[in-house]
Amino acid sequence: MCDDQDACPGTPRGAKVDARGCWDIGKVQFIIDRYDVRPQYHPVIDEVVRVMKLNPDLKIKVQGHTCTIASEKYNMKLSYNRAISVSDYMLKQGIGSNRISVEG
């Protein structure tokens, strides 16, 4: 892709990109009412870890999301715990805590 057509010119080195030139991370989905990372999504997070290791100055924000079934207060806690679960997995893979922020 030519730089003038790149919708995301700051994409980290080594990241897989979509047709627009943007980092295509993929999704990590959770079982309803749960926040543990299922093993089938480890490769998605492992790919983010790989890119972060290639780009030692890269910092990311992990955002957790939920559906709208429960109360807003409950969903905020659940979404935060989901983000923490992904962050914890990344920490175990060697990414420093100073490089990850979380948001529910």
Order of helices and strands: HEHE
Estimate the strand proportion. 5-15%
CA-based shape:
globular
Oligomer: single chain
End-to-end gap = 34 Å
Order of strands across the biggest sheet? 1-2
Helix content: 25-40%
The value of Rg in angstroms is 15 Å
Q: Main beta sheet: strand number and arrangement?
A: 2 strands, parallel
Number of helices: 2
Provide tags for this entry.
single chain, 104 residues, mainly alpha, two-stranded parallel sheet, 2 strands, globular
Outline the structure in words:
The chain has 104 residues and is mainly alpha-helical. The protein contains two helices and two strands; from the N terminus they run H-E-H-E. The N and C termini lie far apart (34 Å). The protein has a two-stranded parallel sheet with strand order 1-2.
What is the secondary structure topology, with strand pairs?
Elements: H1 42-54, E1 60-63, H2 72-92, E2 100-103
Parallel strand pairs: 1-2
Summarize this structure briefly.
The chain is mainly α and 104 residues long. 33% of the residues lie in helices and 8% in strands.
